[in-house]
Design a protein that fits this description.
about 190 residues, alpha+beta, Rossmann fold, 2 domains, four-stranded mixed β-sheet, about 35% helix, HAD_sf, hydrolase, trehalose-phosphatase activity, stress response, OTSB-like
Length: about 190
């Protein structure tokens, strides 16, 4: 299990430029040839896939709220093109609504960026003047006051808006381990 930002790619000013090197991609591909391999990230699963570009991996985006198995034949693939788990689907409309409100609110703060990660949102403030951080936090909390089923957490110069459900990257890892365990120890035989 691998994280993307800060592990497979460097932490950068612009999250859309957090690109992994070809050398790192080759290393991950090599691991995936021998072991079931998953990338678990707070980012949108589709965005992480667009950065990594390896179809033989499992991807868990949105802090594990959007899990999908490999779409390319591998020794460890259970089922192709099947979404394995999306425990926060009911929150998609509210996440979209909050994304629109936060995006409008952050326009007045230079350097602030709102990233839609499908099942959660990231409000990046790495490029915001430190004097504006408190105001940014107050603005985000003010928007969320109208959404009691969402919670706010803080990462490295990022505020994360997530559904208030009992699910996180740890739950995603347990789900993947259980799914892979059933596959690896079930009726399918690996050669």
């Amino acid at each position: 299990f691998l994280d993307y930002d800060g592990t497979l790619s460097p932490i950068v000013q612009d999250p859309d430029r957090a690109v992994m090197t070809e050398e790192m991609r080759d290393a991950v591909r090599g691991v995936a040839q021998h072991f079931p391999t998953a990338i678990v990230s707070g980012r949108c699963r589709d965005k992480v896939f667009s950065f990594v570009k390896l179809e033989e991996l499992y991807y868990a985006g949105s802090h594990g709220m959007d899990i999908k198995g490999p779409t390319k034949v591998s020794n460890h693939k259970a089922k192709a093109d099947e979404v394995l788990c999306q425990p926060a689907t009911e929150f998609l409309p509210v996440i979209q609504e909050v994304h629109e409100k936060l995006t409008a609110k952050m326009e007045s703060i230079p350097g602030a960026m709102v990233e839609n990660n499908k099942f959660c949102l990231s409000v990046h403030f790495r490029c915001v003047e430190e004097a504006e951080w408190d105001a940014l936090g107050r603005d985000v909390k003010a928007v969320l006051d109208d959404y009691p089923k969402l919670c706010l957490t803080k990462g490295r110069k990022v505020l994360e808006v997530r559904p208030s459900i009992e699910w996180n990257k740890g739950h995603a890892l347990k789900f993947l381990l259980k799914s892979l365990g059933e596959f690896l120890h079930g009726t399918s035989q690996l050669s």
